[in-house]
Design a protein that fits this description.
The chain is mainly beta. It is built from one helix and eight strands. The chain has one domain: Nucleic acid-binding proteins (OB fold (Dihydrolipoamide Acetyltransferase, E2P), Beta Barrel). The strands form two sheets. A five-stranded antiparallel sheet has the order 6-5-4-7-8, with no helix packed on it. A hairpin with a 6-residue loop joins strand 5 and strand 6.
Amino acid sequence: MALDKISDPREMKHWSGHMETDYVYTHGVAGERFFREIKENGRIMGAKCGRCGAVFVPARMYCERCFEKLEEWVDVGKRGRVHAFTVAYIDMDGCRLKEPVVYAVVKMDGAEGGLVHKLGEVDIEEVEIDMAVEVVFKPKAQREGSINDIKYFKPTK
């Protein structure tokens, strides 16, 4: 039944019950180095294009502008700007949060792309587009090699 070929979409069948899906997510070549740098060195690295000079964060394998293979890595620093943000009042289970959480797309200075993460040490009423922020990492002993090794981004003075 599960291997039946469907040739007419009006004859679609459904599967009742629970269907197991086992998989392993990998960061890929660029992602592995990106997260290793955060974990081991507390720095955000971007992949720089040797042809057009664009720097991408998070790092990737090929330039989105000219399709050149990206082989140079550069430290983009700890500062960026809020490109977009939202305030969450409920958690992923639909329960009201004790304190609202601000999530933002942060574009690192001098880089293309952006990181979606929490803002901390900030008054919700003061968050604005283009606000300068800097990364706050978890202590090195607590880092695991994921985006959560970034504790949050906080406003810079």
